Amino acid sequence: MANVPLPPESTLDEKMAKLEKTALFMRELPDEPTDDPTIAALQSLLYEGTPDEVAQNFKEQGNEAYKEKRTRDALGFYTQGIGAKPTDHTLLEALLCNRAACNIDLQNYGSVLRDCAKAIANNLQCSKAWYRSALALNALERYEEAIDCCTRCLAYDPTNASVKATLAKAEKSFDFQKRRRAEKAEKERLEKERERAITSALSSRKITVVPKASEAATNEAPPIHFDPDDASRSALVLPVFLLYPQHATSDLISAFHEDTTFGDHLSQMLPPLGTRPDWDTRGEYTLDNVTVYAASRSHRLFRIGKDKTLREAMAAPQKGQPQDGLEIREGCLSFVVLPRGAEEKKWVDNYKKEHPAQAPGR
């Protein structure tokens, strides 16, 4: 005779879950309609009686669920109680405050404030509504309003310890918030002042800041700033690109003080003191063998001596054309570095072709 496999034995939890689906052992009735006549009859009993009786029944079920930490179930019962539209104002107030307690646990602070507002409209001396409003407002960092709620409550309920504790917390948080806001406002004020000062300094040097081609353009250039060691706040420090068009590469000098020379920087970057760049396979780029060029806003070309400072380079375009100047693009000033000789002449000739009747300034 073949062995017939027995069905697996149910666990205790599975047995209890199955038992709770029967009407006699249900902890709560389902909200949706059912074909089970016993459950349907019990559902109908929930709404038998006056609105106050129905609401009271749901309130008691909600209280039981809340004690058992079944917060969402309790929320549902209180909502059904409110939906029964009780005429007893005290009962309605309790349902609203109890539902607010559930929503505090669930962090539904907007719902807390709405229910508490209704409870207070029903009874201006509803301490639970003022208290729970303050809890929600504290959680939302609306400390000034939380203080107002506590103050109003303590005006008629001066010994309420929970409200006193909430008031102390709100006052402490509000003081901290005010300090943070004041610090932020001062920081923003100083930043705007710094930006205005830098804009004025650039304008006096006839430097134009060209807007980015698009908002998506990225710019990793360090910010333009004043020399922190200069008490007069008159010396600028700017990011500068040195371009090597012959090799389609560049170097970024992140902090070029305007009173330092190009030679000061190039001497650290190029031989004999610096290291020969990997891309300079012919050894053309040495301190004594390179020339620096700058192009102005009006496309005039200027040869900048390595003994010249950045301040002098920025002033060069104004000779003969007082309103001309250099441009800042993508946050940086740019200068071209070329080896003397054929490559230099070739690049300058190409520049002249692109910008007719313009020659390098000296």
From TrEMBL:
Keyword vocabulary terms for this entry: Repeat, TPR repeat
GO biological process, one term: protein folding
TPR repeat extents: 127-160
Cns1/TTC4 wheel domain sequence ranges: 229-351
InterPro entries: Csn1/TTC4_wheel (IPR044059), TPR-like_helical_dom_sf (IPR011990), TPR_rpt (IPR019734)
One cellular-component annotation, GO: nucleus
PANTHER family documented for this protein: TETRATRICOPEPTIDE REPEAT PROTEIN 4 (PTHR46035)
Official protein name in the record: TPR-like protein
Species assigned in the record: Exidia glandulosa HHB12029
